[in-house]
Design goal:
By secondary structure, the chain is mainly alpha-helical. The protein has 22 helices and eight strands. Bound molecules: heme C (8 copies). The site of one heme C (HEC) has 22 residues, from helix 3, helix 4 and helix 7.
């Protein structure tokens, strides 16, 4: 139909303008229209944000009609009842009500507030399936179900009080855990009851009461049992690909001294080039063409994005399984190592019986990828670099990184040897006798790998030289080793405990 005629009909009917929709916007399902009737008033910010999204401006049918290279849905055909409508409130919040324990009667509908990866999977099955295999989706369990990591958490955030002349550490409690480590790793969201409230727009309404909500940690455990939240990166309700491609989105979590990818990237030529040129970049284009749409990479370009050349030929396919391009796990536990084969790390056991990917002497645990797989992944990442750099530049970069992994691991061995001697001499209580993370020598040992070893490696991988030296890098690593050595000398001088 002619656009002007469509416009005329919509205005004559009066419904489009009343719902704040432009004439060219696709129709809404009857359920989604109901939602807007109230939510225009109840949550105007949500409605305005959604209206800017592609979900509001496209039907699944129209999305499927696009050529494969620029298609933004991965489902083969539209889920029942959705083909000719925009993706409105109801398409997400009323999907499969019976599998969502947080479903409540809401107006004439059955609505759940916690939209999960299972809902998105109706139209984006490939992304949801890959994200399930991303370590990020398992970030909650990997932390709380690993007894050593859980102890690290409780020692780091446990509440301190004076107990005579010593310091007592008490259980931080779930609320503190949720506000601390689990803010990023994700909480477990459960339905713990319902509450009936008087609302300005619709009188009495009943809502679910959810534990540890709100939370947008990447590994959030949802009431329907699914893992993770897509809105960690796809900020609701615009769900914009441009936002997901910005480094700031990843920087919400990848920032501290333990995981300084964002600060490292920010001071690299890549970060600086992006920041100075981004007004001229096209962050929305699919396919995404290096050189044409952007001239330096954000996190997404290296770790996730589908990149194509100007003729549309795909150079690297998109992945929501971010380890696909990672040959190493830079994050030392306590040594840098090959990535685990699967996203759930709780099954790893080191040769010395600890739930870690490496033993205390550095021996890799079973269950990590083999070197051949590592090399294949490094080649995949090098293909990304190859869009903008020559082979010698890229090969030289990775050689430097391999050297830094080896060099920092060697110093982690030095630090670990010292803490082990402190344990053996009874100057500190190690595994089996007490927490390995609470005493001063142990805290220094943790900092040597968790902060300074990691920062040095991240700086080498993502080119932020200062983080490899004076900003949380080698200066601090070597200073910490010196302090540990001097502490150990006083321990040796003490009569054993
Ligand atoms: C009769 C009016 C009305 C209709 C129709 C309606 N809502 Fe609501 N909705 C409300 C009000 C009022 C609130 C409460 C807002 C607040 O907490 O201040 C609400 C809250 C919500 C919440 C948040 C719930 C929570 O526990 O935090 C979601 C999600 C939601 N509505 C989705 C929908 C969807 C999807 C539809 C359509 C299927 C819909 N609503 C239809 C009035 C309505
Ligand atoms: C850790 C961050 C992150 C999370 C979590 C995440 N995504 Fe993405 N997503 C991205 C990035 C980055 C892109 C851009 C990829 C590109 O440039 O090709 C993207 C792109 C997409 C696209 C656009 C694909 C296209 O064809 O244009 C869809 C759809 C999508 N994600 C769905 C999901 C769903 C569904 C989930 C949850 C199951 C999810 N994402 C979780 C980061 C994330
Ligand atoms: C593409 C799917 C999708 C669509 C479409 C959608 N939502 Fe949501 N909505 C979500 C997700 C996902 C969350 C939860 C965010 C999170 O994971 O923390 C959410 C959360 C909410 C909340 C609770 C957030 C808060 O801050 O209290 C409200 C209210 C809500 N949506 C209303 C709406 C309304 C109204 C519409 C239609 C204008 C709508 N949603 C359309 C996916 C969607
Ligand atoms: C009923 C089908 C449907 C559901 C459910 C759905 N989407 Fe979409 N999604 C679409 C369509 C259609 C598009 C637009 C495609 C286009 O413009 O070509 C889209 C586009 C996207 C994009 C790309 C946006 C952009 O700016 O390019 C992202 C990201 C996305 N969806 C994420 C999600 C997430 C996350 C959820 C769950 C919270 C979700 N979608 C649920 C159908 C759906
Ligand atoms: C600001 C966000 C954020 C907070 C808060 C946070 N982490 Fe993390 N954590 C991360 C990121 C990002 C990674 C991934 C590191 C990497 O692979 O580069 C991670 C990974 C981990 C891992 C590795 C798990 C595995 O086996 O894969 C452990 C252990 C961990 N964190 C412990 C903690 C503890 C303990 C706390 C609280 C004291 C905490 N984290 C708080 C962001 C965070
Ligand atoms: C809400 C917090 C959060 C956001 C946002 C986030 N991450 Fe993560 N990321 C984590 C945590 C936590 C882990 C570690 C999970 C674990 O080890 O159990 C992680 C792990 C990773 C890993 C290792 C994955 C694997 O399977 O080996 C990569 C790579 C990564 N993140 C990159 C990114 C990128 C790129 C973005 C932005 C597009 C991003 N992250 C956004 C918290 C986040
Ligand atoms: C120029 C490409 C590039 C950019 C841009 C980039 N990275 Fe990386 N990233 C790398 C390389 C190279 C590695 C190490 C590769 C390996 O494991 O073989 C890496 C490793 C990682 C890891 C894995 C850490 C671990 O524990 O193994 C995470 C997480 C990560 N990057 C997050 C980010 C985030 C967040 C950003 C944006 C702020 C970002 N990266 C930007 C190239 C890049
Ligand atoms: C989209 C293009 C693009 C991609 C992809 C890309 N780079 Fe770059 N890179 C640049 C630009 C532009 C510069 C700045 C060049 C200069 O100043 O000489 C740069 C600079 C660098 C530098 C110098 C960094 C510094 O801060 O001194 C290194 C090293 C580098 N890139 C390595 C890589 C590696 C390794 C990859 C792949 C993992 C990669 N790049 C991917 C565009 C890109």
């Amino acid at each position: 139909m002619d656009r002007d005629i469509l416009l005329g009909i919509a205005f004559l009917c009066g419904t489009w303008p009343a719902l704040g929709l432009a004439a060219e916007d696709p129709p809404l399902s009857p359920a989604s229209r109901d939602c807007l009737e109230c939510h225009e008033e109840a949550t105007p910010g949500v409605v305005a944000d959604w209206r800017r999204s592609r979900h509001a401006r496209t039907t699944v049918q129209a999305a499927l009609a696009k050529p494969p290279a620029s298609r933004r849905v991965s489902v083969g055909e539209a889920p029942e009842g959705t083909a000719s409508f925009a993706v409105g409130c109801a398409e997400c919040h009323t999907r499969d009500p019976d599998r969502h324990p947080d479903t409540v009667d809401h107006g004439d509908h059955r609505m759940h507030p916690v939209v999960t990866p299972a809902d998105c999977a109706a139209c984006h099955p490939v992304e949801a399936d890959q994200f399930r295999q991303n370590r990020m989706a398992h970030a909650h369990g990997n932390l709380v179900r690993n007894p050593l990591f859980r102890d690290l958490m409780d020692q780091a955030v446990g509440i301190r009080s004076r107990d005579g002349r010593s310091l007592k550490v008490s259980d931080p409690g779930d609320a503190t855990r949720a506000d601390a480590c689990l803010a990023c790793h994700g909480t477990e969201v459960r339905v713990v009851g319902t509450v009936t409230r008087d609302t300005a727009q619709a009188g009495e309404m009943t809502f679910p009461v959810l534990s540890h909500w709100p939370n947008q940690g990447v590994g959030r455990v949802n009431p329907d049992g699914t893992l993770g939240t897509c809105s960690a990166c796809h900020v609701r309700h615009e769900f914009s690909i441009a936002v997901a491609r910005k480094a700031e989105t990843c920087g919400t979590c990848h920032k501290g001294p333990d995981v300084p990818a964002y600060p490292v990237w920010s001071v690299s030529k890549h970060g600086v080039t992006v920041k100075s040129r981004e007004a001229s970049y096209d962050f929305d284009a699919v396919p995404w063409v290096p050189g044409r749409d952007f001239t330096a990479p954000t996190c997404a370009a290296c770790h996730a994005s589908e990149l194509a050349d100007a003729s549309g030929r795909v150079m690297v396919p998109r992945t929501h399984r971010f380890a696909d391009r990672l040959a190493w796990r830079l994050f030392g536990l306590p040594y840098a190592h090959r990535p685990p084969q699967g996203p759930d790390t709780t099954g790893l056991r080191s040769a010395d019986g600890l739930p870690l990917p490496t033993a205390l002497d550095g021996t890799p645990s079973p269950g990590l990828i083999d070197p051949a797989e590592g090399e294949a992944r490094e080649r995949r990442l090098a293909t990304v670099c190859g869009a903008c750099h020559g082979t010698s530049w890229v090969t030289g970069h990775f050689q430097k990184l391999h050297h830094v992994i080896e060099e920092t691991n060697r110093q982690t061995r030095t630090a670990t040897g010292m803490v082990q001697e402190a344990w053996a001499r009874g100057c500190a209580r190690g595994p089996g006798q007490g927490s390995p993370f609470d005493e001063v020598i142990e805290r220094r040992w943790v900092e040597s790998w968790l902060f300074y070893g990691n920062a040095t490696r991240f700086a080498a991988a993502m080119s932020g030289a200062d983080y490899g030296v004076f900003a949380e890098g080698r200066w601090w690593l070597t200073k910490t080793l010196q302090a540990m050595s001097e502490w150990l000398a006083t321990c040796r001088a003490r009569p054993s405990r």
